Amino acid sequence: xxxxxxQIEYPVKCKPALLxxxxxxxxxxxxxxxxxxxxxxxxxxxxWNGEVVEGKxxxxxxxxxxxxxxxxxxxxxxxxxxxxxxxxxxEIELLITDFCEVGEEEDLKLLWDTSIQRLHRAVGA
Length: 125
What we know:
Elements: E1 4-11, H1 16-24, H2 26-29, E2 36-40, E3 43-48, E4 51-61, E5 65-70, E6 79-85, E7 92-100, H3 105-123
Antiparallel strand pairs: 1-7, 2-3, 3-4, 4-5, 5-6, 6-7
């Protein structure tokens, strides 16, 4: 059965360039996204509680977005982290696109809530 696409938005109080660094640099990703992140050319490894997952960056737009495909993803699934700047208020939002099984949307949101709390602490927001 195919997973469903979920999108979650979080306000983040920092400059887009700083946020982008936390989304694309393995050292900074290790502060909030996974326990340890490494990149070796096109191959990235993400370590969550001793479970190592390989992946790759499939798209990147400077100061705007990054898209990862991880080994556990099914065809056409990914994690995208997109920086959205409100044209009027200039407030920054992080739009996360991820996939989960039907009925697990709340679990996915709770997982991202925890990660974003760590991101807020890391960027000082």
